[in-house]
């Protein structure tokens, strides 16, 4: 019984840390009127994020959820600023009832890279921990959620080890973001 209470307390703490990290990321580089703004209020050019299998505003194909077996969907991006030193990807949902969940974090992608293939990680990129503590793509499960696939252009390399704590990873991304773009799916097919 004590172990169960400890586990529940740890899950609540992890959720609170994750939610705080997401607030840092979204407040540090939120979209305002169709363009990105930094924490300092400087207007940033948005990245264009697309996918051959996802449509912005469309459903997430169940193959990329916990009901399928395809792993991460392919993503493409463009308009990375010339001064970017790396790119990061964060896949999350923001559920007002249960709090935010991060399903995938990829760091230190070469800024000349403009896509990630299905069920792969770019060469020399580093995966961070997700909300559930695992490293790698954690397929979404909640059918009635919106899932956000956000690509960040960064002014430096995050330079954290594989599996670094989620709060540290998200804070580093927020601190270095110079541009970002997002593709959002609505619900799981």
UniProtKB/TrEMBL annotation:
<dbReference type="InterPro" id="IPR008914">
    <property type="entry name" value="PEBP"/>
</dbReference>
<protein>
    <submittedName>
        <fullName>Putative lipoprotein LppC</fullName>
    </submittedName>
</protein>
<dbReference type="Pfam" id="PF01161">
    <property type="entry name" value="PBP"/>
</dbReference>
<dbReference type="InterPro" id="IPR036610">
    <property type="entry name" value="PEBP-like_sf"/>
</dbReference>
<dbReference type="InterPro" id="IPR005247">
    <property type="entry name" value="YbhB_YbcL/LppC-like"/>
</dbReference>
<keyword id="KW-0449">Lipoprotein</keyword>
<comment type="similarity">
    <text>Belongs to the UPF0098 family.</text>
</comment>
């Amino acid at each position: 019984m004590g172990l169960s209470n400890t586990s529940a307390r740890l899950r609540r703490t992890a959720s609170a840390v994750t939610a705080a990290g997401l607030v840092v990321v979204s407040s540090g580089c939120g979209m305002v009127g169709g363009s990105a703004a930094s924490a300092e209020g400087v207007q940033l050019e948005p990245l264009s994020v697309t996918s051959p299998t996802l449509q912005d505003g469309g459903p997430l194909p169940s193959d990329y959820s916990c009901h399928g077996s395809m792993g991460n969907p392919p993503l493409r991006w463009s308009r990375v600023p010339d001064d970017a030193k790396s790119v990061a990807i964060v896949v999350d949902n923001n559920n007002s009832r249960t709090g935010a969940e991060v399903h995938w974090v990829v760091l230190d992608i070469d800024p000349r890279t403009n896509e990630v293939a299905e069920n792969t990680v770019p060469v020399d990129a580093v995966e961070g921990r997700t909300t559930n503590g695992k490293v790698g793509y954690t397929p979404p499960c909640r059918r009635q959620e919106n899932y956000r696939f956000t690509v960040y252009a960064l002014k430096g390399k995050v330079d954290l080890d594989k599996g670094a704590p989620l709060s540290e990873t998200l804070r580093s991304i927020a601190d270095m973001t110079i541009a970002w773009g997002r593709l959002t799916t609505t619900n799981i097919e």
